Amino acid sequence: MFAQDYNENPFIVIWELTRACELKCLHCRAEAQHKRHPLELRFEEGKKLIDDIHSMGNPMLVFTGGDPLMRDDVYDIAKYAIDKGVRVSMTPSATPNVTKAAMEKAKEVGLSRWAFSLDGPNAVIHDHFRGTAGSFKLTMNAINYLHELKMPIQINTVISKYNYDYLDEMAALVEDLNCVLWSVFFLVPTGRGQEKDMISPVEHEKVFHWLYDLSKQVPFDIKTTAAQHYRRVVIQNKMRDKGFSKEDKPFKYKDVLLKGETGRIDGLGRAPKGVNDGNGFVFISHIGDVYPSGLLPIKAGNVRETPLSAIYRESEIFKSLRDPDSYKGKCGVCEYKHVCGGSRSRAYALTGDYLESEPACVYIPKAWRRKASHE
């Protein structure tokens, strides 16, 4: 379980097939456009990329956008990957492109899971956030189609000031929709996302504790994105629940991966260790540019010029992101830095330095507390 080396291979690869999309989401990382870019990776280039991805320990591959369904060859690309044994999922936008026929075709080629975004428990909140009237209704219709086809459903939600007060209702809706996974994103101000739309650091902490409690009560799994410090909250709660004493030594994943009563470990157990920007995670843009994540817009190379494997393993940007000892401020001295590390994307978005401390974390490391007590 602990053999995977993120210096060599990622746990998950995100490929932005296109930036074309019919929605106008307030937070859109991609700043999506209505038309496809003429320099998108072509089908043959995509096959070469998939071959390289497969050679890197066969990580999970997610097709994203924009809206992947804006590409006519999306199912050909998916079939090529699936036939090689790659685990593929897709995050299409809820637009009129999402028909039952489209889903049947996806199931036919072997797409393992579809993910749809729901950012509010009703049309008023969701449609405002997505910038398009009728988006909530289209999403619910699409979910019903997936149920009819017996395809597993993942719901993605971006936590922002627009839905912070409605999270109980959101959790109830996810459960009512019989979803297998609730993937909870915490807003990073990049693309169309604005700092004013973020919840505060204290509100981040409140949501983390709420998610931990929720995870012990619901039938679906919970995963967080751009919320690496949720791992610290999970560890703290599990140590308290199990009656463990706190130790001064830095936490390692092998010390904290403790199975819960449900067999899950509440957001920590999908990957063999913590995934962060450039550390187990890599993003390829629609034109082949490679980034540590879609939320950290620092280009490390392009797959048209250099194989993805070489960029991931050899880029100095990626190497620094995989070294917690290079982190600055309180993240650099925090005892949780090997299991958390903070969102490198949010650090970059708010400070201009991807190695700086996580701005949305309220935790004070032991080293700082000890120093303050001796002053």
From TrEMBL:
<keyword id="KW-0408">Iron</keyword>
<keyword id="KW-0411">Iron-sulfur</keyword>
<dbReference type="InterPro" id="IPR006638">
    <property type="entry name" value="Elp3/MiaA/NifB-like_rSAM"/>
</dbReference>
<dbReference type="InterPro" id="IPR017200">
    <property type="entry name" value="PqqE-like"/>
</dbReference>
<protein>
    <submittedName>
        <fullName>TIGR04053 family radical SAM/SPASM domain-containing protein</fullName>
    </submittedName>
</protein>
<dbReference type="InterPro" id="IPR050377">
    <property type="entry name" value="Radical_SAM_PqqE_MftC-like"/>
</dbReference>
<feature type="domain" description="Radical SAM core">
    <location>
        <begin position="7"/>
        <end position="221"/>
    </location>
</feature>
<keyword id="KW-0479">Metal-binding</keyword>
<keyword id="KW-0004">4Fe-4S</keyword>
<dbReference type="InterPro" id="IPR007197">
    <property type="entry name" value="rSAM"/>
</dbReference>
<dbReference type="Pfam" id="PF04055">
    <property type="entry name" value="Radical_SAM"/>
</dbReference>
